[in-house]
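As a warm-up, study this chain.
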Amino acid sequence: MKKVLFILFAIAMAFGSANADEKCAGIEAGAKAYQSSDFERAVDEWRTCVDNGIVNADLYYNLGNAYFRSGKIGFAIYYYRSALKLRPNDEDIQHNLKFAQAMTRDKVDEDGEENPILSGLFKAHHALSLRSQLFTLLGIFWIVAFVAIARRLSASERIKNILIGVLFVLSSAFAVIGMSAGYKIFVAETEITGVVTAKDADVTSAPDDRSQTLNTLSEGTAFEVISEQPPFVEIRLGEKVKGFVKLSEVGIVK
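Now compare it with the structure written out below.
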């Protein structure tokens, strides 16, 4: 089984990729505690780094691992999702998140079979990270500029026609990748998700302790955040669940 039980590992703690200015004594102390199977202490040490303002995919990923090994599935999923938002194409994070999510009880019903065309488009959309797409767009732009100049300077009608075809292909690729990158930016700026970190969280009809309980979500359930109204947050889960949960019982992935 690939990456068995979360790769007993975190010796691949990948903190070497953290930025030089991201210094926190808790990183090394947490790594030592994790290697000694003292997962609760590892959590405490790494959380101090998060509380000190360090935003790093490796730190979040390893916090997710430590929480999972401590039996706190909600916090594990929360930190995996936080890591994945910073590094969307990381296969290890994706694998561990999927593994943890399979252990949650709440599922969103999906009617019908998956459309193979939409599935293919979705995979293509996520094949490159936003950063890679932006670099690709920059490269295509300069190639288009070079080809346009070459066409203008060419004296051969045949070569000009070929270059027109090349410009069409490059422009089409630029448009497709540009739309994908634009959508990723839009989603990153507007879509906020949350995760139930408590053992369960009541979904109420209004942001009030005395309001009616509509549903109860179990630990680790992810949902869409509509708005924050402290001490509550308005949420939606699929088409059937909508209401308010206490901020103290969830984590918001930002």
